[in-house]
Write a structure and sequence with these properties.
By secondary structure, this protein is α+β, with helices and mostly antiparallel strands. A hairpin with a 2-residue loop joins strand 1 and strand 2. Helix 1 crosses helix 2. The N and C termini lie far apart (about 55 Å).
């Protein structure tokens, strides 16, 4: 299964509320990126997996779709105005590809 079309901002907010309430889900902690909402950090894939339940008839599982900066799940969140950013202490992948400059 993939992420169904039609997830709403209310679906995402409902997923965040469920995570705050301690709902059980099959997602682990995020690896590189967090959804940041009202000062709290959430694993973006878990949010989207829970948000899809209304349309998919079940909570999506980690293997049902991909995550990461350029994924559909992250685009959905950003399109609704949510902030998805690198976890504290993670290097920006673009910066990590640049060679270090030495001072001569």
């Amino acid at each position: 299964m993939t992420i169904p079309q039609g997830i709403t901002r209310d679906d995402v907010l409902g997923a965040i509320r469920r995570l705050d309430a301690g709902v059980e889900h099959g997602f682990g902690p995020s690896l590189k990126y967090d959804l940041v909402f009202e000062g709290r950090r959430y694993p973006p894939k878990a949010v989207v997996g829970l948000a899809a339940e209304r349309l998919a008839g079940r909570v999506l599982e980690p293997g049902d779709f991909s995550g990461g900066q350029d994924s559909k799940s992250t685009r959905i969140l950003r399109d609704f105005g949510f902030v998805v950013e690198l976890k504290p202490g993670e290097a920006d992948p673009v910066d990590a590809e640049l060679p270090e400059m030495s001072n001569y």
